[in-house]
Amino acid sequence: MKKTIAILCAFIMLVSVCGVSAFAAEEQYNVGICQLVQHPALDAATQGFKDALTEKLGESVTISEQNAAGDSATCATIIGTFVSDEVDLIMANATPALQAAQAATNQIPILGTSITEYGVALDLDDFSGVTGINVSGTSDLAPLDGQADMLAEIFPDAKNVGILYCSAEANSKYQVETITPLLEEKGYKVTAYTFTDSNDVAAVAQNACDDNDVLYIPTDNTAASCAEAINNIALPAGIPIVCGEEGLCSGCGCVTLSISYYDIGYATGLMAYEILVNGADVSAMPIEYAPEFVKEYNADNCEALGIEVPEDYVAIGAADEATEEASEEAAA
Questions:
Q1: Comparing C-alpha atoms, which of 123, 97, 115, 85 is closest to residue 33?
Q2: d(C-alpha 158, C-alpha 222), whole Å
Q3: Rounded distance between C-alpha atoms, residue 98 and residue 104, angstroms
């Protein structure tokens, strides 16, 4: 009996010295990612999110990443599985994924990324930057007035501007409605060309190229996933394209005023950490926006079309390459 008591006392002393945490299982977090479609911008945002969470939580977080291949119904199925599995947080990459998450749960915290305008995406009246529901996240909205200025700077002699976008994407429609009067104020005749899905992108792009001097494509997931098809029509036709973001521009554009999708994804990951570990209230977290924008150009397309860009434009990929080279030199 005395021996048993002695062992028990020794165990209690060990716990008091080492702390209860030494014997308690480390808390685990389960996070589900629903990405609408695979293309460079959304891929970069997802990677930034995962990098931030794993840097903060290491093996304490399990991430389930699912891609809906551009189908809104598949987004709903993916989100439904996350809800059934009772994940601790859902990251929705692109508007249809966010809308599916909002419809599926009002309990699990939801963070969006690559969302242009949350008020439009979630149909919120008088949206002022905080949703008041179980949703927050980051926006990919770049200054539309700046993009209109860019188009006028590079193509001052153009007369007809065609805007190409997917009518099924609410945030694309918002951008088109915003930038159209800005371009018209500069003297351009602006015509919108809409496609409903990837099946009619090529035909609509051909019509737009036939009727216009230059095209503008906002941040649009369907267009981004079909960038190669658009480029195969616009480049031989000699029609330059101003794009809403870097990934789309690298595929079919000439110039863009873009954010870093990796950076907004990373910021979303830091928001997730605050929710999971520090108990932040997602409904009170303001939507976060990219802190800076970069004038970039697609060197190959600009050369093919004989377009000269001002010195303050950076070739797409050049900034990333410079950063990688600097990191390698520092490590050496």
A1: 97
A2: 26
A3: 10
**Same fold yes or no, 29-140+261-289 and 144-258+298-323:** yes
- Residue 303: which residues within 8 A CB-CB, separation 6 or more? none
Residue 92 phi, psi dihedral angles, 5° rounding: -110, 115
* CATH assignment, 144-258+298-323: 3.40.50.2300
CA distance 166 to 10: 69
Pick one of 3.40.1190.10, 3.40.50.2300, 3.60.21.10, 3.30.830.10 as the CATH number of 29-140+261-289: 3.40.50.2300
From first to last of its 332 residues, what are the pLDDT tens digits of the chain?
444 444 444 444 444 444 433 333 468 999 999 999 998 999 999 999 999 999 999 999 999 999 999 999 999 999 999 999 999 999 999 999 999 999 999 999 999 999 999 999 999 988 989 999 999 999 999 899 999 999 999 999 999 999 999 999 989 999 999 999 999 999 999 999 999 988 999 999 999 999 999 999 999 999 999 999 999 999 999 999 999 999 999 999 999 999 999 999 999 999 999 999 999 999 999 999 998 899 999 999 999 999 999 999 999 986 554 444 433 444 44
Tell me the one-letter amino acid at 293: F
The runs of H, that is alpha helices, within the chain are 2-18, 40-57, 72-84, 95-104, 118-121, 144-154, 170-185, 201-211, 221-225, 227-237, 246-252, 261-276, 299-305, 318-331
